[in-house]
Fold:
Amino acid sequence: MPITTVKDIMTEVVETLQVGDTLAMARRQMERGGIHHLPVIDDDEHVIGLITYHRVVEAWISHGQPNTKSFAEVAGDVPVDMLMEKDVVTVDADAPAAAAARVIETNRFGSLPVTKDEKLVGIVTAGDFVRFAQRHFEAEPQRKPPAQKANKKATRRGSSTSPSAKGRRSR
Structure:
């Protein structure tokens, strides 16, 4: 059976950010794409950061007045490079998928940017692994449930169903 690599299950990156983009722009991209992780890249498509939905919401709440100020008021001028994760773990597209799953699970990451020759080529998320598992399980041949053997009443020593236990009282 061939080894499943990261490129077999990753999502090609559709949305990215660059230094100078704002949190408001990140939020719009996340909402429009239904995504929670956006890699931040430089002009050469190298990953230099990662901004998550959690960080965006955290920035809004930590501003101090989330009930009175809209997100747009808070995030309009905040650059993503101010809040992005800068020490980003990436995975090579040709790496075994099991290795990427281990990194995601061990570190409790929601995603890993995927690179090839140090350039961003995709992203793999916990959801990608769930979808892969679902396809794998659905492709398995449907097995018939094992035939059940005729049930004989088990008689265990001291059980209330054994003939010798009838009529005994516990003291």
